[in-house]
């Protein structure tokens, strides 16, 4: 798990192997043990690559676009879909097991809500994208976290509101840097789905999304936070998840009586 500071007796990979085997090969399997080891050795910080490069104002966007175009050549290329999963979501450790097995472009990233930092998340996104296809960028993204009307609870003590993303420097830099991972080639606005909370429950939710889109310019971004029971919510779920397994997971999300390993 990204950002985890504790050694667990059973790793996510161990538990995943115990559950059903996926019929396709995940191009970027989650390896929490190796992440933990590299953090201890300092390699993870060294691998951050271009995260600390110059401010976005100094970037040659046309050069960035051409670099992305060269990386994505080939009829077999499928733009990656990044899925950020907060450990604060109940039964979050099972979410990578219920994603669509017929779509190898879905890349799940489970992060530790209590201990991860914004840099941890950005470094892991960069690492996963490089493993998938060096130089490629995100066209679709799902952020699965807790929150509510007008706010996102991304990390411990880091609640994103429309006011805070204007004032708190670490939050501002996170969204700017996240924008750097979004595609410049996509003819449509890159899509970021918010799941696990209904951000648009009041007017501040739309203000938050407008501020985030401004921070992520010149990349064109569209935020969506549909209710899961709506038609748009079902469409969002089916984009990333095996719908049957998602409903099963949802029905057991708050249960302590049955282990998912007995069901999947």
Which short descriptors sum up this protein?
single chain; 264 residues; alpha/beta; three-stranded antiparallel sheet; 36% helix; globular
Folded structure, characterized:
With 264 residues, this protein is α/β, with parallel strands linked by helices. It has one domain. It is 36% helix and 14% strand. The chain is built from ten helices and eight strands. The strands form two sheets. It has a five-stranded parallel sheet, covered by helices on one side. A three-stranded antiparallel sheet has the order 4-5-6. The model is unreliable at 7-55 (pLDDT under 50).
Number of helices, where a helix is a run of at least 4 consecutive DSSP H or I residues: 10
Amount of helix: 25-40%
Which structural category do the helix and sheet elements fall into?
Answer: alpha/beta
The largest sheet is:
5 strands, parallel
Biased composition (Basic and acidic residues): 33-42
Region (Disordered): 1-72
Biased composition (Acidic residues): 51-65
InterPro entries: NSMF
Outline the secondary-structure elements.
Layout lengths: L11 H7 L13 H10 L1 H4 L14 H11 L9 E6 L19 E6 L6 H15 L7 E5 L1 E3 L2 E5 L2 E3 L3 H4 L1 H12 L9 E6 L7 H13 L5 E4 L6 H10 L2 H9 L13
Parallel strand pairs: 1-2, 1-3, 3-7, 7-8
Antiparallel strand pairs: 4-5, 5-6
Provide a quick synopsis of the model.
The protein is an alpha/beta fold.
């Amino acid at each position: 798990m990204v950002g985890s500071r504790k050694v667990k007796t059973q790793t996510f990979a161990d538990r995943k192997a115990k559950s059903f085997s996926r019929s396709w090969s995940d191009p970027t399997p989650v390896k929490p043990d190796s992440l933990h080891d590299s953090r201890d050795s300092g390699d993870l910080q060294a691998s951050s690559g271009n995260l600390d490069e110059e401010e976005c104002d100094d970037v040659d966007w046309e050069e960035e676009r051409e670099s992305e175009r060269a990386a994505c050549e080939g009829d077999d290329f499928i733009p990656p879909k990044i899925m950020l999963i907060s450990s604060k979501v109940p039964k979050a450790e099972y979410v990578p097991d219920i994603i669509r097995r017929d779509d190898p472009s879905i890349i799940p990233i489970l992060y530790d809500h209590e201990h991860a930092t914004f840099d941890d998340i950005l470094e892991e996104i960069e690492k996963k994208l490089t493993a998938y296809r060096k130089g490629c960028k995100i066209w679709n993204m799902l952020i699965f976290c807790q929150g509510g009307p007008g706010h996102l609870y991304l990390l411990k003590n880091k609640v994103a509101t429309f006011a805070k993303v204007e004032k708190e420097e670490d939050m501002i830099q996170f969204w700017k840097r996240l924008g750097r991972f979004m595609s410049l080639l996509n003819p449509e606005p890159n899509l970021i789905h918010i799941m696990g909370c209904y951000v648009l429950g009041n007017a501040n939710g739309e203000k938050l999304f407008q501020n985030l889109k401004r921070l992520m310019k010149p990349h064109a971004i569209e935020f969506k936070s549909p209710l899961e029971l709506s038609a748009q919510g079902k469409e969002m779920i089916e984009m990333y998840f095996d719908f049957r397994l998602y409903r099963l997971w949802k029905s057991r999300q708050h249960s302590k009586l049955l282990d998912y390993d007995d069901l999947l």
